[in-house]
Design a protein that fits this description.
about 375 residues, alpha/beta, 4-stranded antiparallel beta sheet, about 45% helix, globular
Length: about 375
């Protein structure tokens, strides 16, 4: 068995979800929303099964969906993308795998920001690359130029950026992105941008794509996710956007991974991108209300809540909350004793982890959040 995989355990998300099921716990760990998503998208998917082709769609994606993605980004992010610059994938994780397999040569180094999505490191290593880590710390989780310069070497070829950043729930500012663009140009780096949370932003803030900054149009792979846009995580429809020379290489990797994506889901996402901007805006407001509801309840229980500018998540600082236990101990005790599942943020570090921050998911129905908060508050009160 390949050592890259034989040494890997079950992901923290699946492990904590299993603990939640075993304990009858409320799952505020894994990031999925309550609710059905936009009905128009669901109906389009069902209709397409009966009325449209169920045979292989084009490898790069249905033309209608590729054009819908390009049009969507023109409206929302002022990007001038052609349909030919979009490759449809079976979820954003497949897009990440395709991009890394396509662009890494053995021994190439990839700059990654910790905390990071747990798929990044094994995918980089499986492609023959070497991850080099830039460690971010709470509460600001800021990307500093000095840290980048300290990590880059003559072997560095790529930078992998998750923005908005899960689990930190931060968004890179225009100033930070301009710095990153200048850094990439100065060191001749290609950026792979995991931007699946681009529409799950709060307080009136809007996502800025790195591909739109000076010098980045020809050296960026922009990755998006219909599952996150429409809160339909089981659809597993994602995409990669890149200039033609990059897109051609990405497509070659994609064709030998999943080759293509279920056509009915592609039709449904195309319709959703064309018609459901209002639903996306309403969902953003609902999710923000859930964030505020959970944050207020956690503060009432004596927890120090870190800011959440985007994503489905907010975190608490255990040390600032007056607790001496680490994040793993806290999460294990909470799921066993209070029957509420969370995620220890140390799981998002490959080395030198932050061990005093725990992540909660807030995109749940009000009654679910209130029940979870009552359990957490009672548990916290019993500690005192």
């Amino acid at each position: 068995m390949n050592p890259i995989y034989s040494s890997m355990g079950t992901t923290i998300f699946e492990a904590m979800s299993a603990r939640a099921r075993a304990n009858g716990a409320i799952n505020l760990g894994q990031g999925f929303a309550d609710g059905r998503g936009p009905e128009a998208v669901l109906e389009a998917a069902a209709r397409a099964v009966l009325e449209k082709s169920n045979q292989y769609p084009p490898m790069a994606g249905l033309p209608e969906l590729r054009q819908a993605i390009a049009d969507h980004y023109a409206r929302h992010q002022a990007l001038n993308l052609a349909a030919e610059e979009v490759i449809v994938t079976s979820g954003a994780t497949e897009a990440l795998a395709a991009a890394l397999l396509a662009l890494i040569e053995p021994g190439d180094e990839v700059l990654c920001f910790q905390p990071l999505y747990d798929a990044y490191v094994p995918l980089i290593r499986r492609a023959g690359g070497v991850p080099r880590f830039v460690r971010l710390q709470p509460p600001e989780w800021r990307i500093e130029r000095a840290a980048l310069e300290a990590a880059v070497t003559a072997k560095t070829r790529l930078i992998l950026l998750n923005n908005p950043l899960n689990p930190a729930a931060t968004m890179a500012s225009a100033e930070d992105l301009a710095m990153l663009a200048d850094f990439c140009v100065s060191h001749d780096l290609t950026a792979i941008c995991d931007e699946v949370w681009e529409h799950v932003t709060f307080d009136g803030a809007r996502h800025l794509p790195l591909i739109g900054f000076p010098g980045m149009r020809a050296r960026t792979v922009k990755i998006g996710s219909a599952g996150k846009i429409f809160a339909l995580t089981g659809f597993k429809v994602g995409w990669m956007c890149a200039a033609p020379p990059l897109a051609r290489v990405l497509a070659k990797a994609h064709q030998f991974l999943t080759f293509t994506t279920p056509p009915n889901l592609q039709w449904a996402v195309a319709e959703g991108l064309a018609t459901q901007d209002g639903w996306v805006q309403d969902a953003r407001q609902r999710f923000q209300a859930g964030r505020d509801r959970l944050a207020a309840g956690l503060r009432d229980a004596g927890f120090a809540v870190l800011p959440s500018a985007a994503t489905y998540f907010l975190s608490v600082d255990l040390t600032a909350s007056g607790l001496t236990m680490d994040d793993v101990t806290f999460s294990e005790r909470l799921v066993e004793e209070a029957r509420v599942a969370t995620i220890p943020v140390s799981a998002f570090y490959a080395e030198h982890p932050v061990t005093n921050v725990v992540r909660f998911c807030f995109v749940k129905e009000d009654a679910v959040l209130d029940d979870a908060l009552a359990r957490v508050q009672a548990w916290r009160a019993a500690l005192n």
